[in-house]
Amino acid sequence: MAAQPAALIVAGVFYLMVTAILAGLWRAAADASGGTVVGYTAAALVWYVATSEAATIALPPRMIEDIGNDIGSGTIGVEMLRPTSVLWLRIATEVGQMLPRLGVCVVVGCFFASVTVGAPPDGAAIALAAPALVLAIALNIVTQHVFASAAFWILDAKATWFLYQKLVFVTGGMLLPLEVLPDSLETITKLLPFSAMAYIPARLASGHFEPELIAIQVAWLAVLGTAAHLSFRAGERHMTSTGS
Amino acid sequence: MSDELAIDARELRRSFTTGRRRDRRIVEAVCGLDLEVNRGERIAFIGPNGAGKSTSIKMLTGILRPTSGEATVLGLVPWEQRRELARRIGALFGQRSLLWTEIPARATLEMLGVIHGLDDEHVRSRIELLGEILEARELFDQPVRTLSLGQRMRCELAAAMLHEPELLFLDEPTIGLDLLAKQRFRDLLLLLNRELQTTVFLTSHDVADIEHVAERAVVVSDGSVIYDASVAVLRGELLTNKSVRVGFSSVEQAGAFADGIDLEWRFGAGTPSVVVLSVDTNTTPIGPVLDSVMAADGIVDLSVVDAPLEEVIAEIYERR
């Protein structure tokens, strides 16, 4: 899908601002604690936040609310007149809309990190980070559809959006490497799907060559893809039976 | 149920539960709809707001499951075979877009071609043909969000027609269009029906849509059919009242004209320089009326307006 150039520029500028602030904070934290934070060097931390922010900012904002509005207003009924899956066509469209934004964030992020701290810490790991970033965003989009499908029953997804956003912020590793959290919390967050939406590609980009992380993303994508399929199928049935 | 018919509905009913707990009540949106539509027919399915039109369309397209009753559309049970049916019908909702707004309509049409399983060459030739019929070739290359409503509706119609549907559902397709765009749109529907034998199922609040596009009118109210006749009969029996609005440059000239006219008349609401004549074309031919109007002094504006659909339906009630 094409995106408006102005929207891409705004996304790029916003991304740069947020990344620069977080990178500054983490570099200061690394300097204050002898050069590393939980095993991440200052350079690794900059590459980490550049990647985790790209995974989040590349997504259309408030997607859950938009999906919920389409369900509540009946727009989804029109989409049911196409001879294909409403869910998978929506996901394909969202992924298509995301790609130009992701492209902008990746270009800006690589430029920013290279200028401030130099090349990525590990060439092989950064090569893995690229598909991990796409998988992270695809997983995020699929999971947002699972949450948004609540609107088939409650006709509003605002509350679900609020909950989802906080879960990704806190447990997804968007703002900080999960290793910073206390051990028990680190274990729990790594077991949740949200860590596959920001932490995993960021961990790879920060120089950790761990191919098994991609397998975790693929597994979550399969699980949540199935959940989205089932929840939309149930939601469409509910809609056809109640007319809501 | 007959496969020969485009639509065959028997005793179709749909009720909804509204309210919560103590206020809970059941609303009958459609109460025993019986309807047969022949292939290639152009039917207007009309009624006041809340009459059950949209609910009926949703059931006939498979979006909604009826509470009871049965129906086939092109030989398929809509709510059981929705995707199969979607390959054979087109739908256009005046207030909801089928197009992606950020990209040109051509890209949407190409994507719809893929969704419908059409080969690329066929899609290209269909886009060319529809672009020619709808005079929309240049429009197809502009992002949809930059198009006017009338231009967008032509692209919407192309999207609804891309896969050569046998039956076209149109729900308020001319809403928001200006007079010229409406007329053009109606002509297009007639052309598509004539050239491609597409069955047209139209709902509209605009009497002119019904008069120009449909050959048969089915009026629904409170969820059931109250009138079913050819538009020629409807026109002869009910669409005979016209309002002729004549604007004058001064109130005095309007008063002088009104004093000399031998028809029922009133001043325009809040505009005493406008005289509104009520003409029953069954008893008074419109031509001589317009001739006499044109001979008056100080005319600055003139229009002939159909009676609103609500008045037509009220008259059907009175006659029952």
Order of helices and strands of chain A: HEEHHHHHHHHHH
Outline of chain B, from the CA principal axes?
Answer: globular
Total helical segments of chain B: 11
Helical content band of chain A:
over 70%
Contiguous helical run count of chain A: 11
Report the CATH topology name of the largest domain in chain B: Rossmann fold
CATH architecture of the largest domain in chain B: 3-Layer(aba) Sandwich
The CATH top-level class label of the largest domain in chain B: Alpha Beta
Report the structural category of chain B.
alpha/beta
Largest sheet of chain A: 2 strands, antiparallel
- Domain count of chain A, please report it: 1
What is the residue-mean pLDDT of chain B, rounded to a whole number? Answer: 87
Unreliable spans of chain B are none
Can you describe what's shown?
The complex is a heterodimer of chains A (244) and B (320). By secondary structure, chain A is mainly α. Chain A has one domain (5-242). Chain A contains 11 helices and 2 strands; from the N terminus they run αββαααααααααα. In chain A, a hairpin with a 2-residue loop joins β1 (36-37) and β2 (40-41). In chain A, α1 (5-32) crosses α5 and α6 (123-148) packs parallel to α11 (212-242). The longest helix of chain A has 32 residues, at 86-117. Chain B has 2 domains: 5-237, P-loop containing nucleotide triphosphate hydrolases (Rossmann fold, 3-Layer(aba) Sandwich); 241-319, 2-Layer Sandwich (Alpha-Beta Plaits), CATH 3.30.70. Chain B is α/β, with parallel strands linked by helices and 320 residues long. Chain B has a 6-stranded mixed sheet with strand order 5-6-7-3-8-9, sandwiched between helices. A 4-stranded antiparallel sheet of chain B has the order 11-12-10-13, covered by helices on one side. Chain B contains 11 helices and 13 strands. Chain A binds chain B through residues 1-4, 74-75, 77-78, 80-84, 89, 93, 97, 239-243, and chain B through 14, 16-17, 29, 55, 58, 61-65, 79, 82-84, 86-87, 89, 91, 93, 96, 98, 100, 102-103, 107, 112, 115-117, 143.
